[in-house]
Amino acid sequence: MPESEDDRTDWPVSPPPPWPATVRATLWWHRSTPEAAQYGPSGPTLPITLAMMVDYLDSPVGPYREVLASPVLRRGPIPAMAVPFIAVDSEPSVHGGRQHWKLPKVLADFDGDVLGDFSATGARWKVHTSAAPKGPELPIVGGLTFAQPTPSGAVERASARLKGWCRYARVTVDAEGPTLSRWLRPGTHHGLVITSGRMATGPSKIVG
Fold it and tell me: Does the model's pTM come out above 0.85?
């Protein structure tokens, strides 16, 4: 998609996974728009859009911030994200995403507090979130699975494990861009804020 296009190839080299990190984040989800399926993977899917803003306080490439979204989820015993849109403010992280996990990372500018008002801005797009946490802080243990298509038609699957603390939140979202405005719904959605956590993203494996 246009938001993920970048002809640059000379990114600073990043270390291989696993990538452990300390994180703060806002996640939200909503029912997919009718247009979302055309930006998702082939095969059976679930009509749920999952997106997040992440503040990596430390990582193998240093601190950086990130926005990513999956228009639909791959159907399976464990539904997986298929991410056509992801941006960061770290050049080595761009290399890591593209080289290690087939994630189409691009550079963007970020501003604000990821647990409050936060924005990510690229050359042709912008995403703004405003998180309003509600209720008590609760422990969270779990993970996310990424299943990225490759040019050969195979799928590379990787998992990120998380342990930390979270709160339920209502997340107000505004998105602009050539395709983002078609599938990342504006408005207020259910979500979570990860107030503190440790995450580790493992290596990817070809599964098909």
Answer: yes
Domain extent, residue 40, equals: 2-200
Question: Structural domain tally of the chain?
Answer: 1
**What span, in angstroms and rounded, lies between the C-alpha atoms of 116 and 132?**
7
Q: What is the CATH number of the domain that holds 73?
A: 2.40.400.10
DSSP bridge partners of 109: 121
- Of 18, 48, 19, give the one whose Cα is nearest residue 31: 48
Coil, helix or strand at residue 143: strand
Tokens of 59: 């990582």
Tens digits of residue pLDDT in 9-57: 999 999 999 999 999 999 999 999 999 999 999 889 999 999 999 999 9
User: Would you say residue 207 lies in a domain?
Assistant: no
Residue 39 in 3-state DSSP? Answer: helix
pLDDT digits 0-9 by tens, 168-191: 999 999 999 999 999 999 999 999
